[in-house]
Amino acid sequence: MKFANLTLAMPPTLFNRPLSHLDERRRNSLDWLLQATLTTLRLFVKNELQNHAAATAFYFLLAAAPLVLLLTYAAQYLAIVAETSTPAVMLLAALYQQFDLDQLSDLGLIPQQAQIAASGVGLLTLILSSRGLVNAVQSAFRVIFPDDSKRTFVFKWALPLIVIPLLFGLVAVSVAVQASLTFLSSVEMLGESRAYLLKGLNSLFALLMIWGLFYAAMRRLPMRRPPPRPTLLISGLAALTWGALFYSFGLFFQVERYQAVYGALGGVVFILIGAYFACMAFYFWAQFLYSLSKVDVAALEKLFLGGSGEGANKLESIVFARSNRLLAKFGRHYTVGETLIEEGDTSREAIFLYAGDAGVFKRFPDGEKRLMGIKEGNLLGEMAYLLNEPRTASVRAETEVTALVLPPAMLEDLMRYSAPLSRRIIGSFAQRLMRMNQNARG
Question: Is 395 helix (H, G, I), strand (E, B) or coil?
Answer without folding.
Answer: strand
